Amino acid sequence: MPLSPAPIPLLLMRLLFAAIAFLLACCAPLAQADAPAEIIAKAVLLDDKSEEQIALIRSGEPSPELLALLTLWKEGGIFLVEGPEGTKIPVTLEDAKDADDKQAARLLLTRQPYLGPDGKPIRLLASDLNAAETDSDLRSAMKSILDLAGLASPDRSARLQAVETLGMEQDPLRLPALRARISKETDSEIQHALKEAVALTELKDADPATVTLACRALGELGSIRSQDALRLLAKDGHPAARTAQDALRKIEQHLQTVNIWGTLFRGLSLGSVLLVAALGLAVTFGLMGVINMAHGEMIAVGAYTTYVVQCIFGPGLELSPFGIHIVLPSMKATGWLYDSYFLFAIPLSFLTAARAGVVLERCVIRFLYRRPLESLLATWGVSLVLQQLFRLTFGANNVQVASPNWLSGHWLINDVSLGWNRVFVIGFAAAIVLGVFLLLARTPLGLLMRAVMQNRTMAACMGVRTERVNLLTFGLGSGLAGLAGAFLSQIGNVGPSLGQSYIVDAFMTVVVGGVGSLFGTIFSALGIGMADQALQQILGNPVLGKILVLVGIILFLQWRPAGLFVTRSRSLDN
Amino acid sequence: MNPQPRREIFAAGALALLLLVLMPALNAWAPEDSFFYVSNFTINVWGKYLAYGILAISVDLLWGFTGLLSLGQALFFSLGGYMLGMHLMLMIGKLGQYKSDLPDFMVFLGHTFLPTFWRPFYSFGVTALLVFLVPMLLAKGFGYLAFRSRIKGVYFSILTQALTYGASLMFFRNDMLMGGNNGFTDFKFLLGGDMRSAATQRTLYICTGIALLAVYFGCRWLTRTKFGLIQRAIRDSETRVLFSGYSAANYKLFVFVVAAGIAALGGALYVPQVGIINPSEMTPDKSLEAVVWVAVGGRGTLVGPVLGAVVINALKSWATRAIPDMWLILLGSMFLLVVLFLPKGLISVPGLIRDFLQRHRKPASPETPAPTPAPKVSAS
Amino acid sequence: MKLINKSAQALLALAGMAFTHSAVAADTVKVGVLHSLSGTMAISETSLRDVLLFTFDEINAKGGVMGKKIEPVVVDGASNWPLFAEKAKQLLEKDKTAAVFGCWTSVSRKSVLPVFEKNNGLLFYPVQYEGEEESKNVFYTAEAVNQQATPAVDYMLAKKKEKFYLIGSDYVYPQTTNLVLLEYLLSKGVPLENIGGGFKKDSSGKIISAGKYTPFGHTDYQQIVAEIKQFAAGGKACVINTLNGDTNVPFFKEYAAAGLTAESCPVVSFSISEDEFRALPAKQLVGQLGCWTYFESIKSDANKTFVSNFQKWLKETTVDGVKKEGRVTCSPMVLSYDGVYLWKAAVEKAGSFDVDKVRAALQSGISFDGPGGKVTTQSNMHLTKNVFIGETKADGQFKILKEYKDVFGQPWLKGTFKAK
């Protein structure tokens, strides 16, 4: 084996690169026959014939203009309008909107304003138009063109994505471009990705020595995406098989670390979901001793409120419960304004659910403070009625709640993926726990609440209006459930039976934590979340994990019947 | 408790005569187009109601008499059903879709031999034993743990709810080899009788009626013994019972196990009549539904639960056809109203009417001159 | 007055009195509609009730079936399987319906099957199912596995996908479909290690379950999506999704949040039609694939007429509980619609409402030009129909990518594909 195997292939590569560059230069004048706008305009009109479209967009030189148009098309920014005699004219819309939300149109081909028969520029409403369609083949072709160009993109995430896709293609022709980028790149994560992409591509090299080096490099990098490629090498008696096996082992180790951290994060986020769902219950059940089986429906009230707010920000909403026709107005917001709907939905869902809770307390619960078992039964009746009311109002179908853009994305830290919505739920849980704690510990209302819950008769004797405090406490508990609903709408279903999926878990969390103790609820929620995710990871089966957690809870309560944190009391029957 | 026990027995007897003798007889011998003919459908539906009645008694024995609101009764009910279902599945023999000795769902999943725990179910005798044994052992184990650590009241309800929920998750899994979500269906034979024939269904109906009667008299006897007295004492104040030197835990455990057995019996009679058992029968909601029957019928009595089970299920049969959209609202609000305004259930209605009528008559008599609204005036 | 009437009926029902119905009145014929209008399955099944009532109205407006008006008997199975059996008994034994249209889940069909066989009734079943069943009392207008799953896999193979991750809800349809797909993939030369989701083997080492399963109502898909992400890291992977309707929401929300897209790892779903789509986060689903025997976006005249007539009917109808806003049409709805017309054609061919004669007519091969193209009945009580692969768009519709013409419905598939 030569001591330094690199120079020769490298030289070859360079030659090849030069040749390609030369060829491209020669072709350029030919390709110029079609300007980027013409190519795209032609391709757009070949609707439904994706193979021809792909050939066409590949034929053009990847100039910034072409790339910009491709991006625009991919994101649905090119529209087809009906021209004279049924022809279709591709147009784009300018950014500025007028009072009717209309935008001025420009012809794609000439970049001139699109003029009507009267010679005036035509203004159009984006939602009325048909966007030029794309299918998955066409989009991946667009993406590969964009990626190659994206290597030099000033946008960090675009660059990263470009590198990852190119690496996966394992196309030796891309090597020079990738290598050239390594020296220029300053961002460490992209550096890492570039090295990975280069090594991945080198696995396809004819020279076993290069392949061996590449394998080693991939092992060092802990490259998850190269596993499949390495497995192929490790099997078929290739000279690099042993190195590939070593690399696989290293990647496996890396994967284990990733999984441990991933499980921790997922456990934390599941725990936060449980906490958010159970916190309202911890207040009504824990502090008041009322078993509210309709707690789940209070969560659903919050979720539906979020849905209604979203609809008001977006397309509006028509409902016809019991034959009464209700039309909710629409703000037709888009962009960041639309995305901000969630910020309005959070307080509104708290208020709506709290209001529903107050009504429930006035009409039902207050008669049952001395009969906890019966409050369980009566609220179950309420929960049935509410579920059917949701069904009659919003339809039996689940409704669609779209996450705002700032909640749909993720960070990738050392291959552990942290979803923004999950990070948000953790922060959200922390914030409302803090809020509830401050309310109970630092405000006069909190003082009264605690007093009434500790000794109702004594508090009444001291002049506390216990009825009112009950009402407010129950309202608070229901409001917290509403907040949970607003949040759960971002990660799951919104439908009539939404509450049912969380109620058993929520009860468990409160009971394990110790009724009457907020801290207990926090600990038990996180504990149950972690245990659930860890068991899922170990057993590879989502249901078994859950069953084991339930069994664990039953056994745990043998050991500590009153839960983690016991509220001491001198009363015998409590 | 019962001022006129004779009258109660007489009423029960008359009802039993009507349901157990008259209805099957009319079903079997009345000509099909006559007014008196009772259709197979009616027999079948009433068989279901009566099986539910048995379940309701088991709920009431715990809740009405001992103060334990168990949300696990649906689990014991379905377990009983599952045990008999396993026997019925094996009795299908080669008549299933696959013409195989194995139950269809196993062939479906690619099994080639019968798992060991299924084998005993070839024998009806062993099955009949296991129908009681399995749910009662589970109740014993769970009850022992729960009562030993003095879990009571609402906590007991929540814990039994968790047990039921966990079990239903378990049975939903196809890996469990109990038919998964589809459960057991398409039964063919029971003790040699063709399950589709009217005669078999009629026999099952009569068996259910007899079982209900037996359970009724058994519980009636039990609740009138000294044991029943302690049972009610536990309901009213467990601490005082403890201080009086009784081991409340043992008493509760005994009732819990007996109730599990009764529920299992109901389940075993229910399954062959409806022809299907699947895990959605053992969700906490089903337990709560049974509690509704008891609450509506009248808890703390033995007739009330049966009455509630029959009335609500008949209402359900009707409402799911006539007003499907309103059924849940109807059920929910009925329940709410009963809990709030009629804590003793339907069974107390005649008594209330009697009281009302007596009170109405009273103003006429000279001994009580004060009219009814008087207390209100004095209070304000 | 109506209320009194209803309560009178209730009283009669309570008393359990057997009042004899006139089975088929002179100018009407009774047919049953057996769907869940409450409970968890109401999500999907109410749409089918609506489309059936629409179809009956449409047929009645044109003179009915053999001169008799269709009189629907609508009952609610309430997502409760024993109740389904009871309702089926009621429809067949008390109401003496000539045919019944209904059921969605496999378990509801299994629950009513003995009732139909005992009473020699006729059930039209419209929803994709696992096969492995053939009853002379059920006509399966539904998609068999080879009319949905295997064409979709063919399509993915043609798109050069090499790795397949199987995920589904834990019930028979996904379990069976995945076992069939496992055999199919192996027969196409896909190695076992390229099939993700895990396997379960019995003691002899035979695979008895393939893929990852979650229960109904499962809400937490973090772990599974993390696994898919690692599975798909090397590219050329796709997900075959048989999750039941509403668990798709948390799944796809998690899928999108993890940065997986239709381009990096497409998902082919078999249980998401236009109707379910209404509840899904459309933005995050763009480009994912679906496979059905009908899409609302089919550009045929038959389909356009069907869609516009149905929308018109929705506006005008006075039936309680029909939601009028934002309605779409989807494959199970069209298969219900086709079922009614096929039954009508069979009755007219047989010249009788008698089940045996109608069945013979159905088995002889009847064609109907439905909204999804021509469908033809087969002697095994299934339907030959066209299969479409579509790609989801942001507006909740599917863009049709590929059409397989006249696919023969084949219920018995397990063991038919042999590994190379």
Characterise this structure.
The complex is a heterotrimer of chains A (574), B (380) and C (420). Chain A is an alpha+beta fold. Chain A contains 22 helices and 9 strands. In chain A, the strands form 3 sheets. A 5-stranded antiparallel beta sheet of chain A has the order 4-3-2-1-5. A two-stranded antiparallel ribbon of chain A has the order 6-7. Chain B has a domain of 243 residues. Chain B is 68% helix and 2% strand. In chain B, a hairpin with a 2-residue loop joins strand 2 and strand 3. In chain B, helix 2 runs parallel beside helix 7, helix 2 packs antiparallel against helix 10 and helix 8 crosses helix 10. The longest helix of chain B has 27 residues. In chain B, 52% of the residues are buried. Chain C has 420 residues and is α/β, with parallel strands linked by helices. About 4% of the residues of chain C have low confidence. Chain C has 2 domains: 202 residues, Response regulator (Rossmann fold), CATH 3.40.50; 172 residues, Rossmann fold (3-Layer(aba) Sandwich). In chain C, the strands form 3 sheets. In chain C, strands 6, 7, 10, 11, 12, 13, 14, 15, 16 and 17 form a 10-stranded mixed beta sheet that branches. A 5-stranded parallel beta sheet of chain C has the order 2-1-3-4-5, sandwiched between helices. A two-stranded antiparallel sheet of chain C has the order 8-9. In chain C, helix 2 runs parallel beside helix 12, helix 3 runs parallel beside helix 4 and helix 12 crosses helix 13. At the A-C interface, helix 5, helix 10, helix 11, helix 15 and helix 16 of A face helix 2, strand 10, helix 7, helix 8 and helix 10 of C.
The shape of chain C, in one word, is globular
- Mind telling me which CATH architecture of the largest domain in chain C this is? 3-Layer(aba) Sandwich
Q: By helix and strand content of chain A, what is the structural category?
A: alpha+beta
Averaged pLDDT of chain C? 86
* The CATH class of the largest domain in chain C: Alpha Beta
User: Can you give the helix content of chain C as a percent range?
Assistant: 25-40%
Q: Based on the coordinates given, report the CATH architecture of the largest domain in chain A.
A: Orthogonal Bundle
Detail the poorly predicted runs of chain C: 6-23
Oligomer: heterotrimer
Please estimate the helix content of chain A: 55-70%
| CATH fold annotation of the largest domain in chain A | ABC transporter involved in vitamin B12 uptake, BtuC
Helix- and strand-based class of chain C?
alpha/beta
Strand content of chain A: 5-15%
